[in-house]
Amino acid sequence: MISLFKRLRAFDEMTFHWLFHTTRSLRKSRLAFWLSRSGDGPYYALFALLAGVAAFEGSILFIQRALLAFALEIPLFIALKNLLRRDRPILRRKEKVVLKPADRFSFPSGHSTAAFLFAALVVASFPVWAPLFYGWAAAVAISRVALGVHYPSDVVAGAILGTSIAAFIVTLLPTPFTL
């Protein structure tokens, strides 16, 4: 079993190095930086506010689900990071840091968790936007590897965690909560 984990880790590191070098142009153009920044928290709140102001059908349910989901997601991914304590790839590299991460640990990726959580919630309320939001979430995840702050397994785990939390919340809150 230990041998399997060593091989998986070696594959993850090899895949990281390949992706990191392949995405050099994303770093040079700053596109990776801007994609990564688009996965920061304030933009989720802005989108929810715009959906509420525009009064799209399903906006209230979307906002309620998002508030509940992020209230669950944030402490969960922080607890997992501090429990598993996997160092970020940039801490093992001698290259210039392109993006200073908020913390030391990488598994799971908080940006990927939040982006896929948000995409899944948007799709649950506004299915027509599925390609746009899942494409964006994948771009956020790839940008985190391109910037050297996550291994591929970190962003895959984040995508699974975020999607799972969204599925749980959608099941928990199938209709808007009213007082």
Automatic annotation (TrEMBL):
Spans traversing the lipid bilayer: 43-61, 67-84, 156-177
Compartment(s): Cell membrane
EC number, as in UniProt: 3.6.1.27
Gene Ontology CC, one term: plasma membrane
Membrane topology: Multi-pass membrane protein
Every Phosphatidic acid phosphatase type 2/haloperoxidase domain range: 64-170
Reactions catalysed: di-trans,octa-cis-undecaprenyl diphosphate + H2O = di-trans,octa-cis-undecaprenyl phosphate + phosphate + H(+)
UniProt GO molecular function: undecaprenyl-diphosphatase activity
InterPro entries membership: PAP2/HPO (IPR000326), PAP2/HPO_sf (IPR036938)
Record-linked SMART domains: acidPPc (SM00014)
Pfam families: PAP2
Keywords, alphabetical: Cell membrane, Hydrolase, Membrane, Transmembrane, Transmembrane helix
Keyword Transmembrane helix tagged: yes
Name of the top EC class for this enzyme: hydrolase
Gene3D superfamilies membership: Phosphatidic acid phosphatase type 2/haloperoxidase (1.20.144.10)
PANTHER family listed in its UniProt record: DECAPRENYLPHOSPHORYL-5-PHOSPHORIBOSE PHOSPHATASE RV3807C-RELATED, SPHINGOSINE-1-PHOSPHATE PHOSPHOHYDROLASE
UniProt name for this protein: undecaprenyl-diphosphate phosphatase
Lineage per the UniProt record: Bacteria, Pseudomonadati, Pseudomonadota, Gammaproteobacteria, Alteromonadales
